[in-house]
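Continued from yesterday's entry.
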Amino acid sequence: MGLELKDRAASYLGPILFVVHGFYDWLFVLGSIAVTMNFDALSNVSIVKDRAFAKFWLAWGPGFTANENESAVPDLVASAYGVVVELGPGSGNQLPRMDASKIEKVYGVEPVTSLHAALRLSIKENKMDDIYHVVPGSIEDESALEKFGITPGTVDTIISIQVLCSVPHPQETLRRLYQLLKPGGQIIVYEHIQNMDMVSRQMQRKLLYLLVKPAISAGL
């Protein structure tokens, strides 16, 4: 059965708001850097993307997390145990859902350095200072992982909550992740899926995805 008109309109409006907010964040960051006359930073696309995504995520992340309360996410995250790698922890939205009594260490692999301060604050608020380590870099950066002892066969649990949608080559990334697991280890994945409505699915593929990802992407 197709979507009702009001439901269809609502499903399109959300991503469009992301696009508007995302481009606003880009303009805000560019303006903020220009005011400081830091032309090196202004011409560095990576710096602008990093700061713009951080601004976007700090505004929208709590709402995304709240929406997950009615999903399987809380129970999935609570099942993490042993040595844990969390992909794209952002500002630490999943930390309250972790059961610290089952965890030896957590390595939060977060490439957006502008989110690290908020992530460290969340670590402190959730009393995980002794077990949670922030890993600057992406999951593709093997040298960054090796500095923290994250090598093949060393991880019990990998958490990926709506992160793989931002990875350029998800299948290749998943193969690399599986190599990190100890025998019997687990990968916890919660991800976007294609809309079951045909028209909405085409909107996802041909319009919204092409606009939303560039607007909010931090090059994850």
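--- second protein ---
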Amino acid sequence: MDQCKTCNKPLTVIIDWDDEADDPNQAGVSLENECPCCSKDVLNHAASGEEQILCNVKNEGGLQEGFEILPILKEESYLKAFPEERKARAFLEFCAAGDVGAILDLVKGREDEDEESSMNSSGNAEGAAKPIDVLRYQDPLGSLDTGLHVAIRNGREDVVWLLLLLASSLEPHRFPTDVTRAAEILGAVREDQTGKVDVRVLENAEHRTAEQLAQKLGGKWESWVADGLLKPVWDGIIPIVFKEMAPSSS
């Protein structure tokens, strides 16, 4: 078992993000990344110079050695401070995984919550918190990437098409027939985007739009860039209206 290099005590930490215990040995690694026993820094540095905390994780799935836990600790600490962003961060995870169904469920559920919140706060507009637009959410822990950046970075073409449908002004005729057919089956509809920006306009911390990221990555994204599908557009959003379609024979 690993030991702290300062106090020589086992670096065993029980992480329970719902636990508000005062005992530092039971409350998890702190935001300062300290040893739970002697409070000394437990950060390591990778060859690239990036900070990391490597640990062995044992759960019902077995033992994982050399697991990099620092990103998880940072995210959970962030979400403790900003719990309202939990669903937006889940949205980014779905974009990375290519889970179109989960994205749609989250977006539809968020719209219902926003509508209910708007009704409940109508009499107290001054103190009402502004709902988070998950489709245009930019990851403060991940270089300000949007879901579109994340999907491109992970090679998720289906997610890219979905986000172009829901949060861009890409003209209706630019969508392939199979994409529009799938969108109707799944109930994905481009709603009124008045006053909202085209997601393709948003830049990450490297000052790259989704198109510029695609240019950098190349490969499958070369045709997307050549066809102008990811080109930033600042004009008004064009609504898409799907006609009734007969069920596919397949």
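The two ends are 57 Å apart (CA to CA). The first helix runs from residue 70 to 81. Will compare against the first tomorrow.
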